[in-house]
Every structure is written in C-alpha cells, then in structure tokens.
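ZP: hey, is the nicotinamide-adenine-dinucleotide complex queued? I don't see it on the tracker
AM: it wasn't, my bad. submitting now with these inputs:
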Amino acid sequence: MIKIIGVIGAGQMGAGIAKTFLQNNYSVILFDEFPQALENAKKRLSLTSHTQLINITDDFDCLKKCDVIIEAIPEDFSMKVGLFKRLGDISTPQTIMASNTSSFSITQLASHYLYPSSFLGVHFMNPPHVNPVVELIKADQTASSVIAYVKSLLNSIQKTVIDVMDSPGFVVNRLMIPLINEAFDLLHFGVADALSIDNAMMGAAKHPLGPLALADMIGLDTCLAIMESLHQQTGDPKYRPSLKLKAYVHAGLLGKKTNQGVYVYEKF
Ligand code: NAD
C-alpha cells in the first residue's frame, strides 16, 4: 500500500501534481531547492482541508520517506540527470522513480538512476489537478510490475492513463508543441496578429485555447526546451524552433509565469 508521494519541483506542474494527490488523500512531500518557489506553491495549493497531509520542504533528506517520487523540475536534461544521480543516494530498489519530462528519453534518464528497473515516465498535463490525462512511458529498463503499480496509482486519483512508447515528445507534445511553434512562425512572418491566430484555431479547430495563449500557459521557456529537444533527438529540420519563440524567451517574456509572454497578465 502506497503511503507517501514525493514531488520534486514546486512550480506549476509540481504544485498541481501535489494538489491532485492531496485531493485524493495521499500524503505528499513537496520539495524544491528555492524558498520562493515553496512560498508560491503554498499560494497555488491554497491549503485549507489537506494541511495535515502535506510537507512543503527544502530538505532533500525528507524524500527518503517516499514510496513514489515524481520529478517536475525544468525541462533541462543535465539538470534532471544531476537530480536522478543524487536521488540514487537516498532511495532503495523499492522506491518508484518517475519523471514528468515533456520530451526526453525515459530510457536515457533511467540509465542515470541507480535502480533503472524502478524508473518510468508519467507525463501529467497542465493543469494536473484538472486535466484527466496522463501519458505513461515505459523505459527499456522498467519492470512490468512497476508499470502495473503506477497505473493503478494513477487510476486511484481518477486519471485516464495513455500507454505511450518511449519516443521524443511522446504523443501529446509531438503534436502540440510543433503546432505552437508554427503559430510563432506565423507571428514572425506577419501572417496574422496573435489574437487572430488564436481566434482562428479556437473557432475553426474548436481548440479551447489558441496556440499562443496555450504557450503562455505552458511557459515559453518550456515550449522552446521541448522544441529544441525534439530537434536534437530526431535531427529532423521540421522541428527547428521558431526564431520568434526564441526571441520571447531571450527577452525573459516566458508567459503567465512572468506576467508577460505573447499576452500581458495580472501579477500572480
Ligand atoms: P516550472 O518552471 O514552473 O517549475 C520548475 C520548478 O523546479 C521550480 O519551482 C524550480 O524552483 C524547481 N527546481 C529547479 N531545479 C530544481 C532542483 N534541482 N531540485 C528541486 N527543484 C528544482 O516548470 P513546470 O512548467 O512545472 O515544468 C516542470 C516539468 O514538467 C518540466 O519537465 C516540463 O517539461 C514538464 N511539463 C510541463 C508542462 C507545462 O505545461 N508547463 C506540462 C507537462 C509537463
């Protein structure tokens, strides 16, 4: 019986994943290296009824108590590898280790963790406490029993699990992020303004959010990191990141998280 879920990275995904488990009465340890991130997470979680179930901490050793750990730090390969190496020191072969990566190879990440047969990918969608879908990715090394265990765990928090092969961007981001990238190219070449691009896709394709507003919600830094990862992993020029997307990121306009991306937002 699973007792404690660890979540590493208290940003928009980590805080949302923690919230999902809390809402289903699991005990959660939410760890982040940065105190400001922990403060923001407290606001995001707006804790009222589940305070006794959560420990929000910057103490790495607290993660020793966890039965399942879900990593949700930025989409940076070497940063994730560094973390998984460090996690090998505090976990056991029984600790289930999951990455919420949007695009990296789960097999490659697993190879940097001490117990690769306990490693897998669980790709929650944004916002994790609202969106029902989770992609479940088996590394070459993952034990089948670990997949079955995590599937039942995700079902217990009312998630719809999609089994996906380990492949760059899996299913959702292989489709969604190139669409977003193309929208930035349309902007770049002046084909239409931002609002028109978004309204066109909401009206014509029945998307609940236009691609540029969606990019602002995901974080433009994350969108660029995923596009670069698709490009680097496949070597296919069709995944070349848009110069317009790069320009926003280089200017520090990352979307909702910085109160400005393609659109301007009220302060968080
Ligand atoms: P974010 O920038 O909002 O949050 C990342 C958090 O990780 C920050 O709070 C940061 O302080 C923390 N962090 C950085 N280094 C750390 C470390 N070494 N140890 C502990 N904490 C650390 O990012 P996010 O949007 O929540 O994305 C997190 C992961 O989830 C990424 O891999 C991303 O690709 C993936 N993801 C994102 C979305 C999305 O829509 N944003 C959707 C699905 C998956």
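AM: back. The longest helix spans residues 172-188.
ZP: great, adding it to the tracker
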